[in-house]
Each structure stands twice: as structure tokens, then as C-alpha cells.
Write a structure and sequence with these properties.
CATH architecture of the largest domain in chain A: 3-Layer(aba) Sandwich
Largest sheet of chain B: none
Helix content of chain B: over 70%
Number of helices of chain B: 12
Helix content of chain A: 25-40%
Shape of chain A: globular
Order of helices and strands of chain A: EHEEHEEHHHEHEHEEH
Number of domains of chain B: 1
Oligomer: heterodimer
Number of strands of chain A: 9
Number of helices of chain A: 8
Shape of chain B: globular
Number of strands of chain B: 1
CATH topology of the largest domain in chain A: Rossmann fold
Largest interface: A-B, 56 and 43 residues
Order of helices and strands of chain B: EHHHHHHHHHHHH
Structural class of chain A: alpha/beta
Strand content of chain B: under 5%
Chain lengths: 253, 280
């Protein structure tokens, strides 16, 4: 098993000032995490009793409307957001591809940025040296490798970002709308590469593009209001369920 | 492969805690190297002089203090070495201390970009900031030592104890910075006040004047201020001044060590509770 999410809850606060106040209270409060903390004023559960496991070879598609808790779940698995209750066990290296990335430095070259981001994913210097050519080749940035990253187009940035996440040899690759800005050729190249990767790693895929699920996913989970409301290995059935939820929501508008 | 468990509970005991911190630093050594490279070069990336600014900045402060000295603005009291040398040395040590606070206090907020992209361990950011500060200190210190030699100041064997004697001041600076890195996220007002207060604290510590200053008010404060001893003893060791009483230094060093250990424990037990609040 690469990840095991066990009874995870995550709460957030909708009010900026109260959020700061709660933060101040929390840093001086010592809890052992055995009890579910109560919701305070203006707090809400972004994740509620989420249980999930992913093993090598699986491509888990996460479906749900905006605000269902998909990105919160991803960020909690990554360790960006610590769970308010519950446990997440991660066995191996996680790499991520988000639609928009903030980790790159615009005054530094593509190569310099690749070095930083690879290190961020836990790669050692020899590993980075060994895979640099593969990353540059896959990203296809050619003569721009030495150019400042700020001069790259959105597509080039996305390609570099994706190439790093793939060639960092992850145990779990998380893609959250990471292919949204890529052109059709690069998307095809990525899908082929992901199909190869899934033999060695687990993949968690969040997208509103149903074709990507149909092509890659081995399991779908459906999220609504911070909870997993459905889970299936029948990809076509899962997609149909989500389309029904979308139709229901649209009919209420 | 390392198994990471994210949960609200801590644990591991005192030695387990420090073992985890050290293991994290070793695991992240490539990332620390990359972050340090960025920090050292980023601020001067768009300048013509580039990293030469690391040398130009301390040279400019030497010129400023020379002008202030000859214009008679400061009446520091009797110093055993030329006043400009004294002030340059004192200011470098003071900035060494204050920079730990200033750089580390923003470490959690600055980590937001990386936290959004990867499972980022905060130890990497703290160690990067500490190393950055040490490098930023060593460059002006080396220049100041050359200036002191040019002024005829000689260095003896006691000078070799200068760096080890600075360790408690460094630990205290790190501790204050680490503590306020949490506060800065949720109560920025306090951080801003303390940031301003550091300027006041400099004048309540014998930095621009000596411990023999005439003012009774200042004397009463500097005697109970641990920074007096943590700053003046290393300085005296470097320039070969006689140290009459070591006791206040050792008490202050013990205080700094205890504060450092407590704050680091507090930080790593608390940072996960507030880290998400930097994304607003």
C-alpha cells in the first residue's frame, strides 16, 4: 500500500480574523489527536471521515463538483494540510502536478528551476544529474533550457512541471488538473507516459476531463461535501453517476 | 522507503524528537543546498554587481561609521581599540543576532510556495535560514577583521574562542526567530512590534557604546540583559580584552540553551496546527 487514509477529518474557518485567533489558540493548546476536535464559530468540515487506500498499479480518479473536497484531500495526503483528526500513512515519494505552480523562480533558468523542484521532491544531486536530460527532453524546451523561467509560455511551464513529477520516479503521482493548460500533443505524450508509469507507482487523478478517467483510471471515488460518497471499479458507471449529480445540481439553479 | 505518518498527535520522546529533526536535515541536504543557492543569489539576481553586493554592503557600512565617528555623533565611552573598529565589530555581532530573528521569523510564511507543491519538511527551511545567516555574517566579519588589522589591532590566541563563544547568542537568535515564525502567521501585529522593538533593544545592549557607559539608567538595564554578556564576551575575546567575570556569560549561555531547546520543541509540536493559515 502506498497510502492509507484512515478516518481523516479536516476543518477550516471561513473568517480571516477568527482563523488567526484560532491559530493563536491552537499553537498553545496541546492535544493528542485522539478526540475529534469540536467545530468553533465559522468553522466547517472540509473533509469528514475519509477512508482511502491506494496501492501500486492503481490509478484512482477523484470526481466531484467544485468544493467537494478533492483538492483538500490531495493537500492533506501531501502533508500540506495536517489532518484535524485521523491518520495518513504514506510509504514512498509523492510528486504532484497542479494546474498552476508557484514553486518556480522567474529569474532563474529552466535547468536551475528543475534542480530546485527535483530537490523539493526529495531527489539527491546524483539522481537529478542522472535524470536532467530525460526531463529536458520530455518537456521539449530545447534552447530555452538556459533562458529565465519568466520568459516561458504557460504551456512550457506546464511541460517542465509535468516532466519533473514523472521523472522524479514517484511512488504516488498526484495530478490535480495538471494537464489543463497543455496542448493536445503533449497531453497525448503524458497519457502514454502515465500508462507506463502506473506499473511502478500509484496515480491519483483529479480532473473535470472525463476522457482522462476513461483512458487511465482503474478506480473512481466520488466526493461530495468533504465525504467519499461513492467508490467503484466500473469507470463508465462512476462517470455516469457524477454526470447525474451535475444534472441534478444544474436543475436546481 | 521511509513511511511518513500525518496525524495530529506527536510523540517520540525527547531523544526521538531530536533524532527525527537531524534525520530530516540529512534527508533534505540537497534541498537545503538549493534553497541556500536561491537565497544567496535571488536578492541580487537583477543587479549588475550581482553577488558582489555581499561585499559592497559591509564596505558601505564601514564608510558610514567612519563618517559618523569623525563627525562626533557618537560618544561611546572608552574603547580599547579605535572606535570605528569597535563599532564595526559590535554591529556585525548584533546584526548576526538580529538577522536570525528577522530571517527565521518569516520562514513559515515563506515556505508556502513549497508546501503547495510537495511534502515539504520545515527543518529544511530553518537550516537554510541559519546557514544563510552564518554566511551573511562571515563576509562582513572578514572585511571588518581586515579593517581592524589595518587600524593596528592585533589578535591573540583568545581570538580563536570568538566563534565558539558566539554559539549561545546564535541559539538565542534562532529561538526568538523560530518562536516568532509561528506568531507571524497568526498574529502579525506582535511580530511587527517586536521587529521594531529590536531597534530599541540594540540601544539597551552595549553595541554602539561600551559596558562602561556613564548613564545609570543604561547600566541598570545592561547588567540584567543577557545579550550584554552574549555579545560583549565574544567581542572581548576577539580583540583580546581581559574578561574579569565569566559567570554572567555562562548563566546567559545556559538561559539561551534552555530557551532554544524549549522553543524548537514548541515549534515542531505546533507548526502543523497553523501551517494551513499561511495560504489565505
Amino acid at each position: 500500500m502506498i497510502i492509507e487514509v484512515d478516518g481523516v477529518y479536516k476543518k477550516f474557518c471561513t473568517n480571516l480574523k477568527l482563523n488567526m485567533l484560532y491559530g493563536l489558540q491552537d499553537i498553545f493548546r496541546f492535544e493528542d489527536g485522539s478526540k475529534l476536535p469540536p467545530l468553533r464559530k465559522k468553522e466547517f468540515w472540509a473533509l469528514k471521515d475519509v477512508n482511502l487506500s491506494i496501492k501500486r498499479g492503481e490509478v484512482v480518479g477523484v470526481l466531484g463538483m467544485n468544493g467537494a473536497g478533492k483538492t483538500t484531500l490531495i493537500r492533506t495526503i501531501m502533508g500540506t494540510f495536517p489532518p484535524s483528526a485521523g491518520t495518513i500513512k504514506v510509504d514512498g515519494r509523492i510528486t504532484t502536478v497542479f494546474e498552476r505552480t508557484r514553486a518556480f523562480q522567474r529569474f532563474y533558468s529552466g535547468i536551475e528551476n528543475i534542480r530546485v523542484k527535483c530537490a523539493l521532491f526529495g531527489m539527491t544531486a546524483p539522481e537529478i544529474d542522472e535524470r536532467m536530460d530525460q526531463i529536458l527532453d520530455f518537456a521539449g524546451i530545447g534552447r530555452f533550457a538556459e533562458a529565465p523561467f519568466g520568459s516561458y509560455s504557460a504551456g512550457m511551464r506546464a511541460r517542465v512541471n509535468f516532466a519533473i513529477a514523472i521523472f522524479a520516479r514517484p511512488d504516488l503521482l498526484i495530478i490535480d488538473e495538471g494537464l489543463a493548460v497543455s496542448d493536445v500533443h503533449f497531453r497525448k505524450k503524458c497519457m502514454d507516459r502515465l500508462a507506463e508509469l502506473k506499473g511502478d507507482a500509484g496515480i491519483m487523478l483529479v480532473t473535470h476531463n472525463m476522457e482522462q478517467f476513461e483512458e487511465l483510471a482503474t478506480r473512481l471515488i466520488i466526493m461530495e461535501n468533504g465525504t467519499i460518497v461513492g467508490e467503484t471499479d466500473d469507470i463508465a458507471y462512476g462517470i455516469k453517476q457524477v454526470m447525474n449529480i451535475k444534472k441534478e445540481t444544474l436543475s436546481k439553479i | 522507503m521511509r513511511v511518513v505518518v500525518n496525524s495530529p498527535s506527536g510523540g517520540g520522546g525527547f531523544f526521538g524528537f531530536w533524532k527525527s529533526r537531524i534525520a530530516s536535515v540529512i534527508r533534505n541536504k540537497q534541498l537545503i543546498k538549493q534553497l541556500l543557492f536561491l537565497s544567496l543569489t535571488e536578492q541580487y539576481k537583477k543587479t549588475w554587481l550581482g553577488s558582489l553586493w555581499l561585499v559592497v554592503n559591509p564596505l558601505l557600512s564601514i564608510v558610514i561609521w567612519l563618517i559618523m565617528n569623525f563627525s562626533g555623533i557618537y560618544q561611546p565611552g572608552e574603547t580599547s581599540i579605535p572606535y570605528v573598529g569597535y563599532i564595526l565589530l559590535s554591529m556585525s555581532i548584533w546584526l548576526f543576532f538580529v538577522s536570525f530573528f528577522k530571517h527565521i521569523a518569516t520562514a513559515v510564511t515563506e515556505s508556502s510556495r513549497m508546501l503547495m507543491e510537495a511534502p515539504f519538511e520545515m527543518e529544511a527551511k530553518l537550516v537554510e535560514k541559519i546557514l544563510l545567516n552564518i554566511i551573511n555574517f562571515m563576509i562582513p566579519l572578514s572585511i571588518n577583521i581586515i579593517v581592524l588589522l589595518a587600524m593596528g589591532v592585533s589578535f591573540g590566541w583568545s581570538s580563536l574562542w570568538f566563534m565558539p563563544a558566539l554559539v549561545p547568542l546564535m541559539l538565542l537568535g534562532i529561538a526568538i526567530g523560530v518562536f516568532f515564525s509561528l506568531i507571524e502567521v497568526v498574529f502579525n501585529d506582535i511580530y511587527l512590534i517586536v521587529n521594531q522593538g529590536m531597534g530599541v533593544l540594540m540601544f539597551l545592549t552595549p553595541v554602539v557604546y561600551t559596558t562602561k557607559v556613564d548613564s545609570e539608567f543604561l547600566q541598570s538595564i545592561i547588567q540584567v540583559n543577557p545579550l550584554t554578556y552574549l555579545l560583549s564576551i565574544p567581542r572581548d575575546l576577539l580583540i583580546g580584552d581581559e574578561i574579569a567575570n565569566w559567570t554572567p556569560y555562562w548563566i546567559s549561555a545556559g538561559f539561551a540553551l534552555v530557551v532554544f531547546v524549549l522553543v524548537i520543541h514548541f515549534f515542531f509540536n505546533s507548526v502543523y496546527k497553523i501551517v494551513e493559515r499561511i495560504f489565505e
